[in-house]
Specification:
single chain, about 240 residues, alpha+beta, Ubiquitin-like (UB roll), four-stranded mixed sheet, about 25% strand, rod-shaped, disordered N terminus, Translation initiation factor IF-3, T_IF-3_N_sf, cytoplasm, ribosome binding, translation initiation factor activity
Length: about 240
């Protein structure tokens, strides 16, 4: 609570804790911050209790000494859960980190060339292109024309052909080359990632086929109820 004393505002310790707590819980409403009259309650064991009044849900939270956290505010009624809020934040952060770890982002990098570029600068640019492609990025090739160079637009496709030939067969054009104002532009992607995916898929298919063949070989043929010569001798 704010209390003015001799024109000086004094902030109590409770107010400071409240301010800090409001920053922590800005992503989720909990306890008395929840505004819905009715909520769908999930207990601390993950069991659905059902739709109950907010006051009753708050009472249950007090009984088990846990927080009432609104986990699905857009649902009707909102879904709330009994859980320790620190534990809830920890689990949410862990999920986000795991999702980020398994999500490979592909950025678009741009490398610019002059239509009359020298050999040394061309080699430097190609090294950057190869580096970005090896990291799984898309690469935008921009051949930039300046001033009177626009009178020689044929050097754009010519230089691009040279670039593609030096990159060998490891790339493909994501977008067809075209002029955009004073730039001759295309976007390249690496074929290696796509090849690796196909190889992995083929390996899985081959392994499955080998396993199926092995299972068929291990399975004895049906006897049709007719005893073999060997079994006749053993029985005799």
């Amino acid at each position: 609570m704010l209390r003015p004393v001799n024109n000086v505002i004094i902030i109590s310790h409770n107010a400071i804790r409240s301010i800090r707590r409001s920053k922590v819980i800005k992503n989720h409403r909990l306890n008395h911050q929840i505004t819905a009259r009715e909520v769908r309650l999930i207990d601390d064991h993950g069991k659905q209790i059902g739709v109950i009044a907010l006051e009753e849900a708050l009472k249950k939270a007090q009984e088990v000494e846990l927080d009432l956290v609104e986990i699905a505010p857009d649902a009707k009624p909102p879904v709330v859960k009994l859980i320790d809020y620190k534990k809830f934040r920890y689990l949410e952060d862990k999920k986000r980190k795991e999702a980020k770890k398994h999500t490979k982002q592909s950025d678009l990098k741009e490398i610019r060339f002059s239509p009359f570029i020298g050999e040394h600068d061309l080699e430097t640019g190609l090294k950057k292109v190869k580096k970005f492609l090896s990291e799984g990025n898309l690469v935008k090739i921009s051949i930039v024309f300046k001033g009177r160079q626009m009178a020689h637009q044929e050097f754009g496709p010519k230089l691009l052909t040279n670039i593609l030939s030096r990159l060998e067969e490891s790339v493909a054009q994501e977008r067809e080359a075209r002029f955009e104002g004073r730039r001759f532009v295309t976007i390249l992607r690496s074929l290696k990632d796509q090849q690796n995916k196909h190889e992995t898929k083929d390996q899985k298919s081959s392994s499955k086929e080998i396993q199926n063949n092995s299972d068929r070989q291990d399975t004895p043929p049906p006897s049709d109820g007719i005893p073999s010569e060997k079994s006749k001798k053993q029985n005799g």
